[in-house]
Amino acid sequence: MVPLVARPIPATSQRRWPVVACAVIASVAITGVLLSPRRSRAQSFERGGGGVATSLAGARAAAVTDATALWHNPAGLALDADPRRARLSLVAGLSVLAERSRYETTDHPRIHSTDGPRLAPRLAARRLLFDRELVLTLGYRLSWQRGLAFGRPLSKRTSPLPPLRFLGRRHESHEHAATLAIAGRRGVLAFGVAVEVGYASLGGEREIFAGGAADPLAHGGHAMNARWSLGGPSLGGRAGVLVSPAWWLRVGLAVELPRWSALSGALELTPPTRPPSGATTAVTRDGEAKTTLLDPLALALGFAMNLSRDLRLLAELGLRLPAGDASLRPRDATLVLDAGKSGERVLPSPELPLHPGRPIRWRGQLGLAWSLLDGLLTLRGGWSYVTAGLDGAPTSALSDLAHHRLALGLSMARGRWRASFALAHDVLARTRLSRLPLSMLPEARPSEPMAGELSTARTRLLAEVRLNL
């Protein structure tokens, strides 16, 4: 690490840097307009030279360079500052994250999900203040994400339930976000805070065909075909500290404050091709919808230890608190349902769940980083153990599903360029369900067997390119 040596800043440079900063902000705004805005929570603000850990969800143990990169710890900005570029320095990066997963039970169709690619162009400008004791960083990112989930039917020989012939769900999200961060360093202690303001939008559609009444990807009720288009402001923040008690040890603590998003827009609900339980008609008319999303508070504690000149051990323990359920309900929608031949009155669900409430999530991970060729190449390997509710699972009762995750990473640095790649795979996780809730399978009767075994598999691939200007 280059020591922070105080050098006087020329007066002409002090007068010139606001003009340069304004030009950078204007160019970023033009770039954002050309690249089309919207939303993805997976990517976050660029953290200087910390490796791909700042943008990798899931393979972090294989990608993190040191404890400064733990959960986008803004205190790491104080360590990344280059005193040789006192006036202004720029960082540009692009991340691509692709994910493929599936889950299945013995009493339910197999669900395949493709999440990605997630694209996140980023640009950050930083300036040293007060004789280089503080680092002021202004960043911008544009995130784009799209995903698809579909189900395949089970035969009647393997399930007592009517098979789903087809079920599909597509979603797309975009986001603009601007971040202002301030970081400083005093002796062995570094600290930092960051505030992020953005505009998010969500869009997508869900379609169900004849043969089944429930959407396994939704939580409860007779699912309806749906189309939605929402948008609104978002606000989030992070804070962190780093302590370096010895040259071979660094300890970091990061806090991610609850992220708030206020979304509103249009929601259209229509009945499936064949209404459930023999019903003849189910009609809605379009309506406006509003909702507020509040991501939960999250904490991360980690350390990096130098085992030798080229070998480093990394560890992290993370905790994410529960989040409340969020759903959309058209304010002006009117539901009409006829009982049909069955004589039973079955109500469709007049709302669209956006994301399920997640239980307390623990994450523990270990990783090794090995530098080769005087830092030109860095190999990383990691193992993670996560207990969490399964995202997008058919029931929120899956609150203690364990994932073992293995990851490998490679980064190359030459001059101002850095390229990083990582691959992570979840070892097949299985859990035994004593019963499935009736809200998930409304066609079943209480006397019918509803026990089953659920298994999941997930693979992530990330590539990132970065340029320090």
In short:
The chain contains three helices and 21 strands.
Strands of the widest sheet, in order across it, are: 1-2-3-4-5-6-7-11-12-16-17-18-19-21
How would a textbook summarize the main sheet? 14 strands, antiparallel, barrel
Task: Give me the count of strands.
Answer: 21
Q: Based on the structure given, which CATH architecture of the domain at 51-212 and 221-270 and 293-327 and 355-391 and 399-429 is correct? A: Beta Barrel
Assign the CATH superfamily of the domain at 51-212 and 221-270 and 293-327 and 355-391 and 399-429.
Outer membrane protein transport protein (OMPP1/FadL/TodX)
Uncertain parts:
1-17, 23-71, 153-166, 209-222, 275-285, 332-348, 355-359, 390-399, 433-452
Estimated share of beta-strand residues: over 45%
Alpha-beta content class:
mainly beta
Summarize the amount of helix as a percent range.
under 10%
How large, in whole angstroms, is the Cα Rg? 25 Å
Tertiary shape: globular
**How do the SSEs run, as a string of H and E?**
HHHEEEEEEEEEEEEEEEEEEEEE
Fill in the CATH topology of the domain at 51-212 and 221-270 and 293-327 and 355-391 and 399-429.
Porin
What CATH first level of the domain at 51-212 and 221-270 and 293-327 and 355-391 and 399-429 would be assigned? Mainly Beta
The CA-CA distance between the termini, in Å, is 18 Å
Mean pLDDT: 60
Q: DSSP helix count? A: 3
